[in-house]
Amino acid sequence: MNAIEDNPAKLVESIFKAFAHPARLEILEELRKGEFCVCHLEALLNARQSYVSQQLAVLRESGLISDRRDGWNVYYQIKDPRVLDLLDTAYSITGRKPIVRKAVKGCPCPHCNQNFKKEMNDDECKNSRIRMCQLPEIGSADQKSN
After folding, report:
1. Out of 20, 32, 107, 142, which could bridge 43 as a Cys pair, Cβ 3.0 to 4.6 Å?
2. Shortest CA distance to 110 belongs to which of 62, 81, 142?
């Protein structure tokens, strides 16, 4: 156990600190829909990978999200759905609702656009600010194991 896990007050403090940034709230709202890769979150926030990674690190260290690796990709998900209850309570208290996005324009991930990667030529991929997801090829070992 680390110092935060040993002290209940510090643990609660770390959760509320994680809520204290608009980008992290936006990430949590997106993860409410399910698991997403880093490239999707980059496109969602229209931000560089390093910035998104910093926000994800705070959320992960506070215990709000977890991650898993699949080849080159890292996918994030809500660790405990009760986190969403806290968010919903905050929205209820303020009388505000989160902005919900149905799709993220320009996102190469499978959730947003199945054909995005196929439509971009190699030069566009190299010049894109968004790191392309490493999608498994059809019939690859990754897909066969699912």
Report:
1. 107
2. 142
